[in-house]
Amino acid sequence: MVEVLNRRGFLKASTAFATGAAAGFSCIELASAAPIEIPTIDRLSLRVLIDSAHDQFLKPSTVRGVVHQPPGNGRGSDYRKVLHNQWGLSLFVESQRADESRTILLDFGYSPDALLNNIEILKVDPTKIDALIVSHGHHDHYGGLTGFLDSYRDKLAPDVKLYADGEDNFCHRVSPSGVQGQFTDFGQLDRRELAARRITTVLCETPTVVAGHAFTTGQIKRSSIERILPNTFVERGSKDGLGCGASHYSPPELQGKILPDEHVHEHATCFNIKDKGLVVISSCGHVGIVNSVRQAQEVSGVKKVHAIVGGFHLGPAPKEYLSQVVAEIGKLEPDVVIPMHCSGLNFALEAQAQMPAGILVPTTGSRLTFGA
Prior knowledge:
Layout: H1 10-22, E1 28-30, E2 43-50, E3 61-63, E4 66-69, E5 90-97, E6 100-106, H2 112-122, E7 131-133, H3 139-142, H4 145-152, E8 161-164, E9 172-176, E10 183-185, H5 191-196, E11 200-203, E12 208-210, E13 214-216, E14 233-235, E15 237-239, E16 242-244, E17 259-260, E18 269-273, E19 277-282, H6 289-300, E20 305-311, H7 319-331, E21 336-340, H8 345-354, E22 367-370
Parallel strand pairs: 1-11, 6-7, 7-8, 8-11, 19-20, 20-21
Antiparallel strand pairs: 2-5, 2-22, 3-4, 4-22, 5-6, 9-10, 9-14, 12-13, 13-18, 14-17, 15-16, 18-19
């Protein structure tokens, strides 16, 4: 069931959907505009399928009720195979409520070879997946998706869906090349490839319940001291079904200019754990990790934050700004902060300095259990 609260720009999105449908893209759905009821679960497990590093010397630990089980040497039954690390993120998410279980695959890493390799070694079961979520339209988060579907689509439920925040996920993106005014291609999520693999994408710009256990934040308000740090640029418009629907944007946005990416399409995935509070998973946090958590609190009506997890995009942050953001995270009073991916070593060190009892740094292959 998909439910959404107070859809921003519903008419714009409806127009974009109609345009896509006219072009033959029936693989897009708009979520319902009905208010949502935030689900409460008993237990949550995150298996880190892809992150940028693997540390085989990590020891099992428990931090404020969160159990961390590292993967050891990262090898499966075949000693010639080992976990692959890469710039990207993918999480295999399992939740439990009484005797009801759900499984979500959140993001897909940079490339399918790493994702498929790690699925095999970690022995997770993709056939259990009830839903797919992409956090935002960056290649290091969706790059492994089509390759994963090529291997597993026929083993997934026929009606399994991909949840994305908005149309902007399909825009073409480029990265600064290091030479003034020049860019390198950073690809784009191709809805034609998803349609060919019988995947419907649900655009949910406002809060959406996923698989009955999780909820997404929808578009994240920007109310904190945080600012978007230098990253990608975006090119809006579509041609031959590739790109983001033109009717979704204003004329100035469609003049062929490459514009700084404001990441309006990024959302966080959240769970409300009984007697613990919120687990907020920010895969990259371009719009600000504090903003993301505040949005989850507002959407859910739950103030208590049990854990803040994922990429916070503070690797390139200047020291003074980083210290300020970590202080703002501290004001949210989370039990545990779990940095991954683009958070950066400097973030982990600063967080450990300011919140020494509540930091847990996992690795590729780690299993994190909440509400155990």
